[in-house]
Write a structure and sequence with these properties.
- It is found in: Cytoplasm; Nucleus.
- InterPro entries: Nucleotide-bd_a/b_plait_sf, Ribosomal_uL23, Ribosomal_uL23-like, Ribosomal_uL23/eL15/eS24_sf, Ribosomal_uL23_CS, Ribosomal_uL23_N.
- It comes from Rhinopithecus bieti (Black snub-nosed monkey).
- Keywords: Acetylation, Citrullination, Cytoplasm, Isopeptide bond, Methylation, Nucleus, Phosphoprotein, Ribonucleoprotein, Ribosomal protein, RNA-binding, rRNA-binding, Ubl conjugation.
- The chain is of the alpha+beta class.
- The protein has a domain at 74-147: 2-Layer Sandwich (Alpha-Beta Plaits).
- The protein contains five helices and seven strands, in the order H-H-E-H-E-H-E-E-H-E-E-E.
- The strands form two sheets. It has a four-stranded antiparallel β-sheet. It has a three-stranded antiparallel β-sheet with strand order 5-6-7, with no helix packed on it.
- A hairpin with a 5-residue loop joins strand 3 (122-129) and strand 4.
- The longest helix has 18 residues, at 14-31.
């Protein structure tokens, strides 16, 4: 067995040695030589795990090829306007249009839909669900809009109302408030 001769390590040049010493001193100054960690006092028997950094997922490809189409768009929200006697009274007296709307639509969506479709300003929307399950919306217009004008413009109301005569529906009908008999044609 032959012993390997120890290689003599040449002493480091004085410049490098001085640099290392200076770095060591710098570290000691920053950290402090006689540092001792203080023990944390625990005041509760339950250990709450600290909140750590959770990075957002970076998926390699989207899991859905295309985003879903919004089925509840402006045209789906408003089904049709109501033209009953009471709805007409609302138009005249309260500056309010009455619509049947989608049950899933909320007041904000109804307001936006009316604004976009009819190009009018809405002051307030009240809703109720009718006994037959439909949702009714009372849309009050801003004071600078007239509900009657808007209703005529978007042909809510027939411009030339054909009123069936109550006495004899087959014999006569009233058009433009003048009685016309079917026999005299």
């Amino acid at each position: 067995w032959r012993r390997k001769a120890k290689k003599e390590v040449s002493p480091a040049p004085p410049k490098a040695e001085a640099k290392a010493k200076a770095l060591k001193a710098k570290k000691a100054v920053l950290k402090g030589v006689h540092s001792h960690k203080k023990k944390k006092i625990r005041t509760s028997p339950t250990f709450r795990r600290p909140k750590t950094l959770r990075l957002r997922r970076q998926p390699k490809y989207p899991r859905k090829s295309a985003p879903r189409r919004n089925k509840l768009d402006h045209y789906a929200i408003i089904k049709f306007p109501l033209t009953t006697e009471s709805a007409m009274k609302k138009i005249e007296d309260n500056n309010t249009l009455v619509f049947i709307v989608d049950v899933k639509a909320n007041k904000h969506q109804i307001k936006q839909a009316v604004k976009k479709l009819y190009d009018i300003d809405v002051a307030k929307v009240n809703t109720l669900i009718r006994p037959d399950g439909e949702k009714k919306a009372y849309v009050r217009l801003a004071p600078d809009y007239d509900a009657l004008d808007v209703a005529n413009k978007v042909s809510f109301l027939p411009t030339n109302p054909l009123i069936i005569h109550p006495l004899g529906a087959n014999d006569a009908y009233v058009s433009d408030q003048s009685l016309i008999f079917a026999d005299e044609s």
